Structure formats: structure tokens, C-alpha cells
Amino acid sequence: IEMKVVKPDRLDAVTQIADHLLDRKTILLNLEDTNKDMARRILDFLSGVAYANNGKIKRVATNTYIIIPSNVDLTGDDLLDELENSGVYF
Q: pTM (2 decimals)?
């Protein structure tokens, strides 16, 4: 799985994240340090991008989401376990 870990703090960062989604990359979106209103706007925009491309978005921790393109299966916690075993911790 190719994954991009992103921690956007400005709305203009979402276009690059959207490009990663269009390239069928999995995104780990960390909004912990993002202003609450900005985080909502970013999440709304990226949810729309994911929906338009038959992707999925799932909350994995407080203010942390995984956005999965349509070519990646998310079954139960298998993907999250695989990510943790690869050194990505939530």
C-alpha cells in the first residue's frame, strides 16, 4: 500500500492531497493541530473528492482519518493492523 501521511494547516494544501487521491494513493489525514473550522472545511472537501472517486473515508482516531481510493479494500481492522505493523501508529 502506498500511503501519504498529511498534516494540512491551510485550505490550499487540499489540492495536492486531492491529487494524491486521484492517483489512487491512500491518505492518512492528521488534523490534530489544524484549526477546528479549517479542519472541517478540509475534511468536507476531501470527503467530496473521495466520494466522487468511489473512495471511502474512515475516522481512525481523534482528528485522524484514513481516505482510501476505490482500488483498496478496507476490511475490518486488517488494514489498520497492517499499517501499525509497518510503523504507522494511531
A: 0.78
